[in-house]
Write a structure and sequence with these properties.
The chain is α+β, with helices and mostly antiparallel strands and about 270 residues long. The protein is about 20% helix and about 40% strand. The chain contains 5 helices and 16 strands. Helix 1 runs antiparallel to helix 5. It starts with 14 loop residues before the first strand and ends in an 11-residue tail after the last strand.
Length: about 270
């Protein structure tokens, strides 16, 4: 690991990575390189995977495995766990679904799952060196928002599966702010959970889902770049402290760009 890379999170419950499952790797690299300025390097997981970098720092993984594993094209957050088998059992015990895994992949063991409202997420058991989400505020590193049926119910589910508020060293903490849930890991805000999603809605943006948000300097310019390269603007909205826009890439993957640097608003604390 170089000095420019973010150190791995030592806790066993934190959001640790975001990953795009896509159909065609070359097309995804061309799109995200043009829209977000990323460069790419082959990772340790084989020719169907690359690691996306911004200014030399890892920001995301992309894998052309949607067909092989029969999973949807999507951006998915992964949470670090100490034992993927234990996490899988906890998911099932709490009415979630384990779709794939645990699978041994490169330096870890991965599980692709869904919570009881249908929002997809992954867990990752590290068995080797790891990259992680950068500290909140670093440009171009993702932060997360879960749009779900009931934020408090979802916080209980993830808290029980991942051990939030367990008191274990490095565990995440949750706080309740303005009818939402803010998740902090190692003292830094990494995710927010909001109510209002509708489980049976035909619109994927209304159904419960984890929203991967990439901070950018200029939302409007990023939207224009996406549209020039085959992306589609799904929604643009004003939010406290800034603007965000949800885009669909040419393969169907949804992601959000925002000029808000953190899930924690200035008046949250």
């Amino acid at each position: 690991m170089t000095a420019s890379e973010p150190a791995p999170l030592t806790g066993a419950t934190a959001p640790c990575w975001v990953h795009l499952v896509t159909q065609e790797l070359g097309a995804a690299q061309r799109f995200y390189g043009a829209v977000l300025g990323w460069t790419f390097r082959s990772g340790p997981l084989g020719r169907d995977y690359v690691m996306a970098r911004s200014d030399g720092v890892p920001v995301a993984g992309i894998g052309a495995v949607a067909s092989a594993y029969q999973v949807a094209v999507a951006w998915t957050p992964y949470f670090s766990v100490r034992d993927a088998d234990v996490a899988s059992a906890r998911i099932r015990e709490r009415s979630g679904t384990v779709a794939v895994g645990p699978l041994t992949i490169g330096t870890g063991r991965a599980v692709l799952a869904a919570d009881r409202d249908g929002a997809s997420f992954g867990v990752w058991e590290w068995t080797g060196r790891a990259a992680s989400l950068a500290p909140s505020g670093r440009r171009s590193h993702a932060w997360l928002r879960l749009r779900t049926r009931n934020a408090f119910d979802a916080a209980i589910f993830y808290g029980q599966v991942l051990g939030w508020e367990s008191g274990a060293p490095g565990c995440c903490e949750v706080s309740y702010v303005k009818e939402e849930v803010l998740v902090r890991c190692a003292g830094r805000p990494l995710a927010r959970i909001s109510s209002g999603a509708v489980e049976a809605a035909p619109d994927p943006m209304v159904r419960p889902h984890w929203q991967v948000q990439f901070p950018v300097d200029d939302v409007a310019a990023t939207v224009r770049a996406a549209e020039r390269h085959g992306g589609v603007l799904m929604e643009r909205r004003s939010v406290p402290l800034g603007t965000e826009a949800t885009l669909r890439d040419p393969d169907g993957g949804l992601f959000t760009v925002t000029d808000v640097r953190s899930p924690a608003a200035a008046d949250d604390d």
